[in-house]
Amino acid sequence: MAIHEKSLIDPDRIMTHESLVVDGVDVSGHWNTMVAPRFLSDYDDDFVNVIRGYPGGENVHRCWQCGSCTNSCTMYAQNTDFNPRYWIYLTNLGLKSEILKDKDIIWTCVSCNKCTNICPKDVRPEGVMKALAHWLEDEGHTDKTRSSIFDEEFTGQVLDHGRIEDAHVVINFLRKTKQPYFQDWLIEAVKRLMRHMPVGMLTMLGWNFLFTPKTRSWGRTGEVLREYVREQKEAAHARMKEAAHV
Amino acid sequence: MQNTVLVVGGGPAGLSACAGVIGAGRNVVLVEKEDRLGGAPILSGYAKLVPSGEWAKDAMGRMIKRVEDSGLAKIHKGTRVVSLDGGVGDFTATLSNGERVSAGSVVLATGFTHFDSINKPEWGFGTFEDVLTTTQMEQMVAGGKIACPSDGRVPERVCILLCVGSRDRQIGREWCSKICCTVSTNLAMEIKEISPQTDVFIYYMDIRTFGLYEDKFYWKSQEEFKTKFVKARIAEVTRAPDGKRLLVKGEDTLVKRPIVIPFDIVVHAIGMDPNAENTEIARVFGIGLEKHGFIDRAEHYTNTCGSTRRGIYVAGAALGPETIDDSISQGQAAASRALADLHALVQKTA
Q: pTM for this structure?
């Protein structure tokens, strides 16, 4: 049966199946459309601790829903769907599916910190926005941000070669973020380099670009550093999570 | 010359009034209808008191001992006042044990009655074993073990429903019981202390931890003990399909969605009703009741603790929902009024 007033139902609650067999009866076709229940059936009690484990999210459990953050928010003035107070509430109760509905706008926080200045309970909502954005990224709910992609490219080169090659950083960043290589500012920069750089240095630049040499006696340093950073990150995360539980 | 004050009720307010009279070297006759002194904290088995954190039996025990050891108090337990004749300066009370008491003035500290959760059947009390009241949960805390009454399992989750028997026109209770928010946030901490693996949720309309209770109880419970606060007025409590847990149904005001959440124990933060015997008390003492059924107070500014009858003073939860600490202060205030009556009589006869 067709569902009337479909517009009143959240699209994600409407379930249709191309082909479906229920108790041996083939119910393929448009009339197997069902509507998932609207009620919330549980909390994720541990989620708040996950968010408290991210830098910035430590105080999220202090919130008492006064709404000062949303009221003072720069982004809320642009888009009333940007509601830090609400996301903080969802975080504390572990209503992840509700948070995911706003995954594409949470990261747009501009870090003006007006919320953090005004918060009477020292929740530090700006930090919570960051923590949520990072969690969304880590869980693969959102694409990596451009700044994360840049950071990874930069750090990757350092660890591989003990140094960075500017041209590679720029080119790889543009490629990974699906931006055209021929950017006006980049063309201008290259032109000026060609015009003003001494020939010796230009040659060296070209050489380095082609052969990407490593820093002298770099050896296994990159590997060791990589391992160390990984260990430290894990330890920090575990510490934060542990602290959040206390 | 009258040298005696009659105090009715042996709870925090009454014991405090007794101590006030005794401290001035006058005699007191204390009439308590139950067989024990201490009032609600003792009779209902409260655990640690708010805000001192002291065990009820210790705190009340000291108050009782102070009165008993004074040598100036005549205590009648398991006794009621059946009639009161005369007027200020010359009252004569007849007790249910047949004794007659002459007193210059009277202090009523007749307290309150806990709301009976049976009157909100949709919240499951009396239907499900694991639905308890705050007083029952206090008793569990005093016993030192948090477990579901139905099968003894340690609860993963406990929720406390605020405003049970308060702020509810449907059941004729339009008052805020004042102390349940603080008691509940404190109870959440006590539960967590005994059973760290239990998560405690509080369902609220507002949180009214007034004055200094704000950070000492509400903030502390939320920030240090991780009590979770959910803005929802619960519609009903039912049995979960597993036959063990309870389902708490309602609407989350902030998410604007219906909720059906499983819990192991549901606690009713019950409010304070007028003493169930207030109509009888009003008849015996010839005093008025206010519109909710608590004892009516006189104009407060110059007739502090006064009732609607001269020479009869009132203290504590008999006047309306009251904290233990403030009941104790009011007991002293009422004693001072009662003593002033005796003193005025002395001056007159001198």
A: 0.86
